[in-house]
Amino acid sequence: MPELVTRRVCLLGFGKVGRRLCELVARNDDELAARHGLRLRFVAIGTAGHGSLLAPAGVSAAEALELAADRESERRAFPEPARPGVDLLLASGADVLVEATPLDPQGGRLAIAHLEAALGHDADAITVNKGPIAWDYRRLAALAAAHRRRLLFEGAVMDGCPVFSLFRSCLPDCRLLGFEAVFNSTTNFILDAMGEGGGFAAALAQVQAAGYAEADPAHDIDGHDAAAKIAALANVLMDAGMTPDDVPKDSIRDVTAERVSAARRAGRRLRVLCTAQRNGAGGPVRGAVRLAELGPEHPLFSAGGSTLSVLLRTDLMGTVQIAEHGALPEQTAYGIYSDLIALHEGR
Amino acid sequence: MPELVTRRVCLLGFGKVGRRLCELVARNDDELAARHGLRLRFVAIGTAGHGSLLAPAGVSAAEALELAADRESERRAFPEPARPGVDLLLASGADVLVEATPLDPQGGRLAIAHLEAALGHDADAITVNKGPIAWDYRRLAALAAAHRRRLLFEGAVMDGCPVFSLFRSCLPDCRLLGFEAVFNSTTNFILDAMGEGGGFAAALAQVQAAGYAEADPAHDIDGHDAAAKIAALANVLMDAGMTPDDVPKDSIRDVTAERVSAARRAGRRLRVLCTAQRNGAGGPVRGAVRLAELGPEHPLFSAGGSTLSVLLRTDLMGTVQIAEHGALPEQTAYGIYSDLIALHEGR
């Protein structure tokens, strides 16, 4: 049995993902110790409006869940008043931040502030928020390097499959030349619902009723979510230094039911296709979100609904494709879990 | 720049894969040193009938290629007579064996002997031959563990994508519950050629003429290759302790052109589907190679030709799919290269 190392975790965000993380860690506490020599202790848990936990001595994941369960009848999950994440992080003496606050379409400024505070104060940082990676990756990576800390984010893009660690750990020395992906499930659902015969507005309402689209669906429909995923992947895997603003975006608002039906009759599917490639050696990376009709011969034809898929074109290993089939909060939480192990093992 | 560690490599097999490995290492020698602190020196290279190289002081990959190029007009690639791989390995004082001898449908007995010799004499071992993993994995893994050596085989199954290291490095603590895959390109090509209207014999001849089937195609057509891949994956990722003999196999010999055409008219595809799952917790793993008709809703519908794909059903990360698009000798060689780095980095 390896020697036990304790990591002191500050968890910001205790929604579905934060809770699932605690449940997963609680269930696997023995395995983490026996297999990896890792003991995770929560020194702080922050929420926006449901109180906070500050426990510099550290509590186990099971204890954290018990504390929260005890208070479920009350307004707060945790005994102390909610306080700003940065304050909580610094007061806790954490050596790793897990940033799982809700997504913020405005570029994740809150998450960025949390990550900066961690990296600037000798803590490693894990985030499941794609905002910081899409909008500010180069600066945050430089900050981490300057402080000899690590920034990991497996759950930030395609949280149902390990796309970043695939590249980092399984494709050493490979260069990513470009990628092609179906990245957004909401638009998949809407385009498929239109294929059943309705127009855009009816399809959107149907998909919203089924819980597959936000109340304000513009972020998905107009390509902003897809552009953020393109920028995040390109920033990390191609050193693109881009933001979602650099990515031209097709919206699906003006797609007609006739167009979707015609494609379907021809055995083809309309999809929001996300691409990036480098223009010439050392040239800039160009991304695009565009509406495309995919035939059955296309490797992304099977992507649809909550099946998201990316084709990674590499220099040494040809084209490798990885896909997720649904991404539940459990899977996002597992992304954090695998990042915690990767941190511990120096991967 | 990290301190340089030299690994002494004995390469058995100098066909396309062995040569491509030397070319890749020669091209990346500086990167291996600068990025990984790894220097690879070849202390022996063995071939079946084209001579051998024994150079206990070690030559670089570029030097090995020059030696071989100098002799291309002669019968031999290397100056010394060919000799048994085990002799060469032991005489060389290698600390890592790269086993890249040609595939041997009879279970890879020669490759197994090479791996045994390496692991039993304090060398790590890498193989791209699926035979040892399909037929004898449990014993070889135990031998490696007893000698505190490692056995890696990224290029042995799905050599165009990193399926083993995906599991090992990106899905820590995940259990594989089962998998579903299209694993054999020859049968893909034959079934698709039959869809153009010909019968089995005509399709086989066409695919053989195009170089996509062996002169003796029984190994592919009767499911032996697919069963070996199932056993290899199940042995490594599910501790199945099975052999290809344990896997029932459909042959495609009796498929009629009418059946293929009918499926195609219905927008469906006939495929040789490879599956494995554990029967109950702790129960045995059952594999099967069976002919199946896949509709466009199936996640393996896009697999075909040289696109091979596997759906991995896990306990913690849901279903993750990984696919390769063609597998050239360059990619098999890259699998070895990534294994060499994984060995060096203790991954």
Give structural notes:
The structure is a homodimer of 347-residue chains. Chain A has 347 residues and is of the alpha/beta class. Chain A folds into 2 domains: 5-161 and 330-345, Rossmann fold, CATH 3.40.50.720; 168-325, 2-Layer Sandwich (Dihydrodipicolinate Reductase, domain 2). In chain A, 41% of the residues lie in helices and 22% in strands. The first copy, chain A, has helices at residues 16-36, 61-70, 85-92, 109-120, 130-146, 163-170, 185-195, 200-209, 218-221, 224-238, 257-265, 329-345, and strands at 5-12, 38-46, 52-59, 96-99, 124-127, 151-152, 176-182, 269-278, 285-294, 307-314, 319-325. The first copy, chain A, is globular, with a radius of gyration of 21 Å. At the A-B interface, helix 1, helix 6, strand 10, strand 11 and helix 12 of A face helix 1, helix 6, strand 10, strand 11 and helix 12 of B.
Helix percentage range of chain A: 40-55%
Number of strands of chain A: 11
Major sheet strand order of chain A: 3-2-1-4-5-6
How many domains of chain A? The number is 2
Give the topology, please.
Two copies of one chain form a homodimer.
Chain A: E1 5-12, H1 16-36, E2 38-46, E3 52-59, H2 61-70, H3 85-92, E4 96-99, H4 109-120, E5 124-127, H5 130-146, E6 151-152, H6 163-170, E7 176-182, H7 185-195, H8 200-209, H9 218-221, H10 224-238, H11 257-265, E8 269-278, E9 285-294, E10 307-314, E11 319-325, H12 329-345
Helix pairs in contact in A: 1-2, 1-12, 3-4, 4-5, 5-10, 7-8, 7-11
